[in-house]
């Protein structure tokens, strides 16, 4: 009986640990896509990349962040999921500024992305 109880507890602990690790991996991937978007915005601001590349790349970054945020929402990390989804709002705002020719305003969005990334790293344990 004790062996069965011990085995059950061991499986339960491993399951919780596994879910936390998966959530951390997803958050790290979200942060990676966000950092990629920041680099693309920076390169676009400096006219180092074509507009078509910028649009396609930022759309891909937003798509990946959205997908991973939705996956996080299905776990116990719903508050982090909502915050991660906020990264897309910043990326969209930067893209609108770039499309409108306000490339200089993009640096504000890069700083906003970096601030939110740091906050998400700290809250999610993704920095570990």
What does the secondary structure layout of this molecule look like, with pairings?
Layout: H1 2-45, H2 51-73, H3 78-99, H4 106-124
Helix pairs in contact: 1-2, 1-3, 1-4, 2-3, 3-4
What share of the residues does DSSP label as strand, in percent? under 5%
Cα end-to-end separation: 38 Å
Main pleated sheet = none
Annotation field: number of helices: 4
Q: What low-confidence regions span 5 or more consecutive residues with pLDDT below 50?
A: none
| Overall pLDDT level | 83
Class inferred from helices and paired strands: mainly alpha
Succession of helices and strands: HHHH
In helices, the fraction of residues equals over 70%
| Integer-rounded radius of gyration | 18 Å
- In one word, what is the shape? elongated
Total strand segments: 0
What report would you give on this structure?
The chain has 128 residues and is mainly alpha-helical. It has four helices and no strands. Helix 1 packs antiparallel against helix 2. The longest helix is centred in the first third of the chain and has 44 residues. The mean pLDDT is 83.
Which key terms come to mind for this protein?
mainly alpha, 128 residues, single chain
Task: Provide a brief overview of the structure.
With 128 residues, this protein is an all-alpha fold. It is 84% helix and 0% strand.
């Amino acid at each position: 009986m004790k062996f069965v109880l011990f085995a059950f507890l061991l499986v339960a602990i491993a399951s919780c640990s596994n879910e936390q690790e998966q959530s951390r991996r997803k958050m790290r991937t979200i942060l990676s896509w966000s950092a990629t978007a920041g680099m693309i915005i920076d390169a676009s601001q400096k006219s180092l990349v074509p507009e078509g590349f910028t649009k396609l790349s930022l759309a891909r970054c937003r798509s990946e962040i959205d997908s991973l945020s939705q996956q996080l929402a299905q776990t116990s990390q719903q508050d982090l999921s909502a915050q991660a989804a906020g990264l897309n709002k910043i990326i969209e705002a930067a893209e609108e500024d770039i499309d409108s020719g306000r490339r200089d305003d993009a640096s504000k969005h890069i700083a906003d992305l970096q601030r939110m990334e740091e906050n998400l790293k700290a809250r999610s344990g993704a920095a570990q």
